[in-house]
Amino acid sequence: MKKLTVLFSLMFFVCVANATEDQITFKSEQQKSTYLELTAELRCPKCQNQNIADSNAVVAKDMRVKVKALLDEGQDKEQVIQYMINRYGQFAHYQPPLNVATSLLWLMPIGFILFAVVLQVKRSKSKNDVNVSETGAVQLDSGQLDRELELLLESNTLDGSSVDNSSKDNKQ
Amino acid sequence: MIPELGNFALYIAFAFSILLSIFPAIGLKQNNTRLMAMAPNLTIGLFVFTLFSFACLAYAFLTDDFTVVNVAQNSNSLLPIHYKFAASFGSHEGSFLLWLLMQSGWSFAVAIFSKGLPVDMRTRVLTVLGWISVGFYAYIIISSNPFERTLPYFPIDGRDLNPLLQDIGMIIHPPLLYMGYVGLSIAFAFAIAALLSGNLDSTWAKWSRPWTAAAWAFLTLGLTIGSWWAYSELGWGGWWFWDPVENAAFMPWLVATALLHSLAVSEKRNAFKSWTVFLAIAAFSLSLLGTFLVRSGVIVSVHAFATDPERGVFILVLLTLVIGGSLLLYSLKAGNIKSFGKFSVFSRESMLWSNNVLLVAATMVVLMGTLLPLVHKQIGLGTISIGEPFFNQMFTYLIVPFALLLGIAPLVRWKQDKLNNFIAKPLVVIAISLTLSLTWLFAEFDEIKPLALLGATLFIWIMLFTALELKQTLNKVSFSKLPLSHFSMVLGHIGIAFILAGVGLTSQYSVERDVKMNIGDSAELKGYEFTFEQINNIKGPNYEGWAAEIYITKQNKFVAELHAEKRFYPVQRNTMTEAAIDAGFFRDIYISLGERLPDGAWALRIYVKPYIRWIWLGGIIVALGGFLTLFDRRYRNKKALAKG
Amino acid sequence: MTTKKFNFRLVPLILFVLLLAVLLKGLFSDPRERDSALIGKAFPQFQLPDLYDDSKQHTEKTLLNEAVLINVWGTWCITCKYELPYLAKLANEYDVKIVGLYYDQNYAPEFGQFADIPAIRVEVKDMLARLGNPYQYNILDLDRSLSLNLGVTGAPETFLVDANGIIRMHHMGDVNERIWREKLAPIWNEINQ
After folding, report:
1. Alpha carbon of B218: minimum distance to chain A alpha carbons (Å)
2. Is C7 in Cβ contact with B324 (below 8 Å)?
3. ipTM of model
4. CATH of the domain at A59
5. Could you say which architecture CATH assigns to the domain C36-191?
6. What domain range is B591 assigned to?
7. Cα–Cα distance measured from residue B624 to residue B214, given in angstroms and rounded to the nearest whole number
8. Are the CB atoms for B371 and B269 separated by under 8 Å?
């Protein structure tokens, strides 16, 4: 299948006299993808909030050209980013640097998740007696999905809060 | 004359909001039912006059009344009529009036549809809404009046609407988004009312659930349309950029999603109540914070309105009163809330708790990512940018546990379930999901990319579990008896699955090419042949420019003929790229016309974006799920509500 | 344990108050203002022609031995027109040495765009005659390579370079009375003591 596609496109190229030039000729697919990543991650210093790939500002164009030139020189992604940061500051890269202040970006959500997990485990331990009836309702019996379904079907029994329903469930 | 009427109506509405915030409250205090009964009527008045005021503004725009500053600055006689209407909410002032219209509209709906509510509860809710309204109306009248006149020296023509906003998206996106933002004030009002009364039983959750669902569904739709609009209008094929303003709309959505789930637990199991109240406060607070960010100029964004600090200070005072006041109330009163529902570590409650924790953690990521650059600069550490690489990375980590639990949770029983029942099934399902997604990617693409595989696997995982759950449920109940809210859940989850697959596949497999073309040239991308057929001069009502016709074939078969434009809007001196899109269920072809090069050739950017439509399709499915809840008999039946 | 008594429900309120402080401060600062990466570093090496004379070359060494303001500008730049008279005043009345770095927007050989240098010279002469000429001389940065090395985002921008060739200040936007007084003059006076 793939071969067929290639064949077709080859044929097409032969038929159509003028094949199109790319605006930028990349040395390899690898280079192209690095270039695309870089132009998406570098921020246009002149614009409101755009990366250099999407901006038409002169400085964004210059930075794109420079990125390509640096890649051609054999620099890797990190080196190109550092090159731009040295000139335009940390502002030019959409990934924040790691320091005491920015560590909160990672620590706060992670801390919150850990806190919540501990809280939940503690809570369920102290209230381990789930099977003890609440408001005089039901024990958790062997009852498969019934209870859940009953809860779910509250709407069919228009008169009820969940507790009422549970007692109905018991009568069944 | 008409603008004066509109202005006058706005003042009357302001007066109504003041009355609404005072008299029913006195009635509550003195147990005076006549004063309490005023609340719905005052709310109706508030809405009617705001509606009239908005109609006057729209009229001024439609009739090109350039004696009004707002019209002169945001419209033009040559602007097509539907954009003239949209321009009435295209500016800061106009959009704020739209906000008020929505706010009073929601309050109106509460006044009309909550007849089943106990009188004191309804009065309290409307009073809280009245308090919020007073602040907003004062703000618009004092610092953002949309009816200000240019007299006596009015311009002959207006400065036109920003070309970016001249799109169908502009007509539908802001109203939807505001419906969502402002709708969250209802859940907020219910929560505050409950805190004030100290009466927080599960019926409170039942009342506030349909309102929350409605607001959330609007917000979902607003975000979806916004993303689609950015994609089709900005001309570089992006659909989400983690811009501060996008984040400002995304945060309330995340919290509202958490709220929706926690309300379910509060209603059905009488648990999480204090937490639910907090989420209700947080959701609306984040809407307000978003408004502040957009309108104060604190943050550099592509979407921000033109700003001045005086307005910023005013909104900041509003924020302090509304958010600060409600958080203070929460810290004082929430301790009295008792949750009775008990549950074990492995139960539906736990699952929903995890859902909430992950959503709130995601909100923290977005909040910190949006505001930290500001803090960082202010404490003297220098300017930094936080964008795509950071957010994408964090969301990839968060989405995995979220999506995995999302699949299982609906099968887990309330209160307590056996973990043993949930070992074999997930293992089988994950194996099937992996196999299927590998096959899928292998058949369609050249290489397997990890993140695409992740998206596809999670998609199949959720779909399989949802089907499993539906089958189990339908074994017990007949299809027709299944409550609509159950289908809401199913739709919501399927929608998320589509979004995950769409994001995963399109972000990994989109390809693009920057080419230079003369007439007759052709270029190849992903098996498609793009032939540059012709380029023509075009002239629209308020712009001129160039249009390229591109003929697309695949294996010599016709696919589409696309029409990409480059427009110049002389009044705003702005150039716009009107991308040409061949939309498809499995892929989009996207072409944007660049500039004309000195040698006469044209620069073009061509993209092939697989599965990108799934993102918006998913968003629409999710929103449908939300709207479906409203038709659930449980929430529509007055008797049930009253009894609850 | 004292923490046992701590009301966790106060946490959101406390965080909110902190946030308010940040937002309030944010309201009164310019969101676009940002620090430059170049301050404290040596002026980058370069070799570029004079705007009026191709044969005359300038390098970073020509800037040494005396404090100097390097002003990035162009005739296409509207803000520069408002800035020129004030810069001329600085040069004439306060003897501030100002060197122009001419920033051309069009030159982009990758896209087949070249600049018309004779036309630029005419425009520059005309504009300086009308609005005042603050410049000792102008360096022509046709391909904007020096500008890129300086972290220039557009025009106007101004660098304050001391006698040792170290960049002491980088201002983005126009230089006016207030900017000179608050941002540039203190450093200028310090290095010229």
Report:
1. 24
2. no
3. 0.87
4. 1.10.8.640
5. 3-Layer(aba) Sandwich (3.40)
6. 511-611
7. 10
8. no
